[in-house]
Amino acid sequence: MPLLFTFWLALLPFFKSAAPEASVTADNYCRIYGSVYLERDPKYRNAASHTVFLNEEEAFADMVVYRESNKLFADATAVWYITPNKAFADHILYVTDNRNLADITVHFTTVRSFATCRE
Questions:
Q1: What are phi and psi of 92, to 5 degrees?
Q2: Would you tell me how many other CB atoms lie within 10 Å of the CB of residue 50?
Q3: Measured at the alpha carbon of residue 84, what is the angle toward residues 80 and 86, in degrees to the nearest 5?
Q4: Can you tell me the distance from the alpha carbon of 33 to that of 23, in angstroms, rounded to the nearest whole number?
């Protein structure tokens, strides 16, 4: 019996499945671009990949985001197309009013060339 248990322990690393990769982690929030749905209902907070705080001042924001009007042109870092439907979104972000609970602070700009991500 101990021999069988030792054999099982030796082969265990080969049978472990790889963990599913999250779409966005804490280290790569700069990869958020494309169609984005901003969730404001606290019931669906767990479906969001990140919690964001919409900042009024550009100086303190982690991301300066340009709001694109066409989904096809939202193809660069910090360029978002805000979609009205959750089903069509590439990323779902929960918007909070409390800055302390946010993972990312976001400021929207009107100039596309100012869109950037600050790591």
A1: -115, 120
A2: 18
A3: 90
A4: 12
User: Which residues contact residue 118 at a Cβ distance below 8 angstroms, ignoring those fewer than 6 apart?
Assistant: 61, 62, 63, 64
Alpha-carbon distance values, 85 to 11, 32, 64, 88, 89 (Å): 46, 17, 23, 6, 7
**What's the mean pLDDT in 17-27?**
49
- Which residue is listed with tokens 């972000």? 93
What is the model's pLDDT at position 16? 62
Is the CA virtual torsion 12, 15, 18, 20 positive or negative? Answer: negative
Query: Per-residue pLDDT for 23 more than 90?
Result: no
Average pLDDT over residues 40-54: 94
Q: Give the H/E segment covering residue 35.
A: strand 34-39
pLDDT at 83: 95
Please say whether the beta carbons of 24 and 50 come within 8 A: yes
Instruction: For residue 21, count other CB atoms closer than 10 A to its CB.
Output: 6
Q: What integer is the mean pLDDT of 74-91?
A: 94
Please tell me the pTM assigned to this model: 0.75
